[in-house]
Amino acid sequence: MEAYGLVVGSQHPADSTIDTFFRSRKYLGSHDRKFIAETVYGMLRFKKRIEWLCESSQQQHHGAPGGSPVYLQCLIFRSVFADEVMETLVGELDAEQEEKRSLILFLNEAKKRNRNVDDKDPFLEDATKDLSLRFSFPEWMIEEWRNQFGDDGTRQLCSALNTPAPLTIRVNTIRTSVDECKERLAKERIETERTKLSPFGLTLRKRTNVFQLDVFRQGFFEVQDEGSQLLSMLVDPKPTSKVVDACAGGGGKSLALAALMKNRGTIFALDTNSFRLEGLRKRIRRSGVDTIRVRKIEAGEVPSDLAGSADNVLVDAPCSGLGTIRRNPGMKWTVTPASVAELHDKQSEILDHYARFVKVNGRLAYSTCTMMRSENEGVVENFLTDHREFELMEPASILRRYGLEALSPEKYFRLKPHVHGTDGFFAAVMRRIQ
Which of 143, 137, 164, 136 shows the shortest CA–CA distance to 372? Predict the structure, then answer.
């Protein structure tokens, strides 16, 4: 309950808050840590539905059990969503017999109401309200996705986003091959299977702390979602290219681009945050890459050696991150329409700025890990209206060399969790024609 309260009350991602919580409580064993993390993430995923079950069950169940709302919500999650036996769960509590009996009646009522939600026809009344409660998402988010994907598509999307993401790695082909990495992991008792779309990815069959493995320390792989691997392929740099990774952050895409370029050419990894770039420098040393130039720049700065000179510029823009809810369910409750509108303005400024780095016949790739129109098509279409020197390229024409042209038949590149099994991504590739 304490960990959940910290996560809900923080603006930081749930994973970093939980890591801080565990670091200050080193006495917790692996079993306790797993139990706490599973409970916190589960309560975040189903927060709205759990709160509704708690409130409505209390109203129905006269003489409601004692305890704070978070305490009762935790019990609901463990009994209703984690399928723990109520009698065993309540029996372990330090409480009087009458209080335990009251809790069991309360949880029975919650389980009944939960079944009623699933049994109800979702479109008899208000589809937005129904899907919002059923899958535990804010109504404004549901409405946005209904407009994009329809009712059935939204139901499938929300269901996929409520499923924990697999652990996927990108094999560092500068150091090894996919087959060799798979074999080395097997020797460390880590079973993997090839990713369905990326030719460089492996998915672990069981989650584990891969950062403790020898094969990781030797630079054989990086943790990276399959969708993110595909975005780097969409940039499609040549081995001799001059590439700018405009919002490099931790550098996952810079490293992927270096591997695609066979450790040739030059990649300028830029960011305004020196702390994030320091993490990238460590990853570069481990990966054996020689071609990444890490550089901190100020907002609005256009270095003279980069202006109008890059063959490829990748703008992986700061965004709401709603395509990654599988990993960070807490962002359901921190992203708002106002914050999305603010991001649209920021993304537009960033794209305008880094367009100046692209040379004639060079390419500009804009990407996000969200599924909000205003952050995706809204930014790109405004940019193309204001910048006639750029034209949109068809993603299929780029992905054909990887045999993935059928993945993106439209003018924009989109990955959807419920269709592709990846995080949600958007990208547009533009060529500078004058």
Answer: 143
Provide the 8-state DSSP code for 219.
T
Concatenating the DSSP letter of every residue in 315-344 gives: EE-----GGGTTT-GGGGGT--HHHHHHHH
DSSP state of 373: G
CB contact at 8 A, 399 and 233? yes
R_g (Cα) of the chain, nearest Å:
24
- Whether residue 242 is found in the same domain as residue 365: yes
Per-residue model confidence as pLDDT tens digits over 252-280: 999 999 999 999 999 999 999 888 899 89
**How many domains is the chain partitioned into structurally?**
4
Query: Are residues 216 and 268 part of one domain?
Result: no
Tell me what percent of the chain is helix, strand and coil, each rounded to the nearest 5. Answer: 55, 15, 35
Q: What is the pLDDT of residues 296-344, one digit of tens each?
A: 999 888 899 999 999 999 999 999 999 999 999 999 999 999 999 999 9
Question: Is 32 in the same domain as 77?
Answer: yes
